[in-house]
C-alpha cells in the first residue's frame, strides 16, 4: 500500500503500490485493459486513462458511485475525503451518505478512476473531461464555473467594484480580490447575511439557477434586482447577454450539496402480488410445455421448406404475419418464437439458390430428447442470446426496417439485462411477483449511464432512461414478458427451475487482501470476484460451461412438473378426437396426418374430414390400417360416422389414376370420365379423351390432382409402371448449422489463469522498466536504454551472477532482430549460452551470449 509520507504522484505509481489481488480486481472490472496485456504498469495506467476505457468504466458504475465521481469532478484537484463528504452529504450531514461513501470511493479506486490517499483524492483527468463534455453541460451536477474561472477575463477595476459592493475591503491586485470574493461566497454566515439583504426578486432568480443549468440571459439594461446580483458578483457575465451563477454561490444555496438528491441506497424491488410457490411452478411448467408445443408447431409448419429469405436477409413482413396466423399469436410474439428457435440452432437458412428458412438437423436431435431437456436448451439459448426480438418492426440507424431473422438485431447488453432482471426476481421471497416499474427503477440506479447520456444532467438522464428511446429499459420490460412466455416465471414470479437457470449464488464475499507482493513462480491467483455491498450488481452472468450446468439443473427440476405423454385419445360421434393431454410422438405424428387440429389448449381437438382421411391414404395407409389404429388408441369405441367416413373415402380413393402425358386420367368406369368431361369446373384442366377409359391434359400431374380433388373426386397418383404412388411429407433440412454466436459487450472477463499470467507479465515488465541499474565497466546505463557491454564484460558479469545468485538486467536481440530488455537470474553459463530464470517470461530459458547486447546489475534497495 502507498506510504502516507510519499503519496503517489501518478496513477502508474498508485497501481505500482497495489498488491496482486487488487490488480486482479481492477482487471476483472475492466477487462479491456488487458486486451492485449500491457508491457508494464505505466502502460496499464495510460490505457486506463483513455477515453474509451474510462467511458466504459463510468457506464458500469451504480448511481451513488457515479454521483461520487461527479462530485470529485467539481471538487478541487486533489480533494480531501472531508471535502468530498461535504459535497455529498451537505452541511447538515446525511448519515446514509456518510455510511455508503467509503464503499463508493473504494469502487472508484478499485476501477482506477480515482487514485491517491484520502487527503489527496484525484479523479483521472479523462473522467473529469467525460463528465463535463460541453459548455451546455459544464458540470455533471449542474454547477457553473468557479469565481476564479468566471472572472478570468474581467478587468481589475471591475473586480474591485464587485469586492467593494459585496462589503469587502479593496485589495492591491485582482488575484487577492478574487480570493477574498471566493472566501466570502464560501463562508456560510457571511453569505447568509449578504443574501438576507437581497430583494425577493433577486433571491427568486438565484433559486431558478441553483440546480442548473447555471446560465441565464439578461438584457443590455438589466432590471434592478438583476443589477443588485451583478454588482455583488452573485451573477457574473460570461458573454454579452449571458450570466452565470458561480459555483461557490450555488453550493451555499444548496447547503453544500453537489446533488439535489444523493442516492446512496438502491431503491427496493416492490412486490406486486404473492402466490404459493407450488402455483407459480405449476403455471410456469404449463407455459414451458406450451413453449415446446409452439416451437414444434412452428418448425413442423416449415418442415417442407419455410418462407423465402429476403435479399437483405431475414423474414418478410408478409411471412411473419402468416406465421403469426398459423401460431394464433400476435406478430411480436411470433417474432419471439422464430428468434428463439434460431438462437437455439433449430432454424436457419438452407443456403440454396432459392434460399429458404428450414429446420436444421439439430432439430431432429432436439425432438428425440426428453421434454425437460428440450426446454432447458431453449431457456439457455434465450438467456445468453444477444439477438433481441423486441426490435423487430423498428428501424436501424440508417432507417432500414429490422426484420425477424435478419441482421441488426444483436444488442450486446441483452444477456446482462436478462440475467440481472431474473436475479432481482430471485432476491424476492418465493412466489412473489415484482412491480415492473420498481424493477426498472432498480436497474436505472444500477446503470444510470449509457452511451450519449454521459454528461447529461441527472434529471434529464433519469427521464430518458425509462423511455422508448432507452434500450436497457426496453430490454428489461421485454425480459419480464419473455420470461413469462418461456415458462421461466409463472404469474410474474420466478419459478424454482427459473432460479436454477441462474446458477447457485456466491457462497461468500471477497477474501481479505494479502500483504503486497508479486506472484511468485508457480503461484496462481485465487478466483477473486469483487462483491460490492448488498444491493449492488451481482457478479457477471455465468460462463458458457457453468450456464450449461445450470440449465441442466433447471431441466431436472422442471421434469416432474411436465405432463406425461399419453398413448390414447377420446373419439367422439361428431367426427372429432380429443387428446386430454400431450400425446406420445408416434401417436401425435400419425394423428396429425389422419386428422386436422381444430383447437389447442389443455386438450387438443382433432377433426376428421374427407381430405384428412385421403391424406392418410395417400401416405400408404389402408382402410383396415386406419380402423385398427383408431381402435388401438381410442379409450372410446370408434363412432359409426367415422368408420363410414374412412370406408367411403377408401372406396373412392385411387379409382381414378393420374399419370404424365403431361398428365392423364384413367378409370375403368367410363361413366365417371363422362361426368368429369361434362363438369364446367373441369374446363380449366383442358382435358381431352384418348380412349374410353383415358383422359389427357397439358397440366402437370400435381395440378390435375388438385383440380380433381377440388371437384370432389379422390384420385390417386400412379407411377410410370402403373403402381399407386405413396406420398409422404418430405422433411426439408438445412445443411448442419451452428447456433448464432452472441455479440459480446466488450472483452469477456478474464479467468483466473489469464489473470495470473497477465499480472506476472506486467510485474516483470515493470521491474525491467523501473528497477535502478548499476553502471558496469566503462558503460553507464541511462534510464530507458538497453545496457551496452563488451562480450568479455557480459561473460564476466553473467558468471559472477551465477556465483552470487544475483538478478541482472540484459538487453537481448532475438532471431527476428527485435530488441527487448529482460530481467534474469543466471543459473549456468557454458558453451556460449546462459541458462537463467527469466522474470519477464516467468520461466527458465536459455539465451545465446552473442545475442546479449549488454548486462547491468540491478541496484540494491
What secondary-structure arrangement, pairings included, does this model have?
Layout: H1 11-16, H2 20-29, H3 41-48, H4 51-59, H5 63-74, H6 81-89, H7 95-110, E1 114-115, E2 122-123, H8 125-131, H9 147-150, H10 156-165, H11 174-185, H12 188-196, H13 200-209, E3 215-217, H14 224-231, E4 236-239, E5 242-244, H15 247-253, E6 271-274, H16 277-301, H17 317-327, H18 331-343, E7 347-349, E8 357-359, H19 361-367, H20 371-384, H21 414-426, E9 432-434, H22 436-446, H23 458-465, H24 471-486, E10 489-490, E11 493-494, H25 496-502, H26 544-558, E12 570-572, E13 576-579, H27 585-594, E14 596-599, E15 604-607, H28 610-618, H29 623-633, H30 640-652, E16 657-659, E17 663-666, H31 670-678, E18 688-691, E19 694-697, H32 701-710, E20 716-717, H33 752-770, H34 791-804, E21 808-813, E22 819-830, E23 833-838, E24 843-848, E25 852-857
Parallel strand pairs: 16-20
Antiparallel strand pairs: 1-2, 3-5, 4-5, 6-9, 7-8, 10-11, 12-13, 13-15, 14-15, 16-17, 17-19, 18-19, 21-22, 21-25, 22-23, 23-24
